[in-house]
Amino acid sequence: MIQSLQGIGMTSLRTRERMIKRLTEQGISSNKILDVMRNTPRHIFMDEALASRAYEDTALPIGYNQTISQPYIVAKMTELLLASSGRLARVLEIGTGCGYQTAILAQLVDHVYSVERISPLQKKAKDRLWELKLKNVSYLHSDGGWGWPDHAPYDGILVAAAPPEIPEMLLQQMAVGGVMVIPIGKGGSQRLQRVTRTENGYEVEKLEPVIFVPFLSGRK
User: Fold this and answer.
1) What is the DSSP letter of 69?
2) Mean pLDDT of the chain
3) Nearest C-alpha neighbor of 121 from the set 102, 135, 134
4) Is 219 a domain residue?
5) Helices (H) and strands (E) in the chain, counts
């Protein structure tokens, strides 16, 4: 691995190991997810000035009023998404952002379809994932509330911004047996939810409190 990907000092593998230890203590139990996060250089997904803080358990700014989620949230949402089955074939990600969550998913599922409303963010994410040789990702610059109907139905949907309620278009794009992990709510009263589509409708589990950027419509 080239030096920028491998990291040194506060971005080194030793620092990553501390992050993995912390994730285990926070209840993340999937060795598969922990291994992927151990081997994915989170520091390359943010500006150099913040790279030394990449493995702290905190959300960090990535520009355009967006953030990279804290490692625990990335791990937790991924674990919730994958919990019901061994490996998912098609996953829709709403909010490419800097591409870190995309990179984690791409190593655990067959194909990721990633939608982002802010074009420059998605372009940077694309370049980083290409650098990591992750080629099982398709990108769409679009309003996340529309999903990506062309490739539906999806076995999994992961949403990285919080709408006040679950967007109907996303529900319609779930396969029967499919799972969506999504933060719901406004401001300080958001909660992570897991939605499972059944033969007869949808089952919703309300999980832990979270803080995400709001789910906005339109494109930039």
Assistant:
1) P
2) 90
3) 102
4) no
5) 7, 9
Query: In terms of Cα–Cα distance, which of 162, 82, 158 is closest to 115?
Result: 158
Q: What digits encode the pLDDT tens for the residues 7-51?
A: 545 557 788 899 999 999 999 999 999 999 999 999 999 888 888
Kindly report whether the peptide bond that precedes residue 153 is cis, defined as omega within 30 degrees of 0: yes
142 an active-site residue?
no
Which distant-in-sequence residues (6+ apart) come within 8 Å of 64 by Cβ? Answer: 118, 120, 121, 220
Residue 43, C-beta contacts closer than 8 angstroms, at least 6 positions apart: 7, 11, 51, 52, 54, 55
Transcribe 127-159 into DSSP letters: HHHHHTT--SEEEEES-GGG--GGG--EEEEEE
| Cβ-proximal residues to 186 (8 Å cutoff; 6+ apart), any chain | 162, 164, 214
Helix (H) or strand (E) holding 37: helix 31-39
| 97 lies in some domain | yes
Q: Which of 12, 52, 69, 114 is catalytic?
A: 69
Residue 198's domain comprises 3-210
Residue pointed to by tokens 């930039």: 220
- Segment 148-191, tens digit of pLDDT: 999 999 999 999 999 999 999 999 999 999 999 999 998 778 99
Distance CA 139, CA 125 (A): 10
Count the domains in the chain. Answer: 1
Q: What is the pTM of this model?
A: 0.92
- CATH number, residue 109: 3.40.50.150
- Asked whether residue 215 is domain-assigned, the answer is no
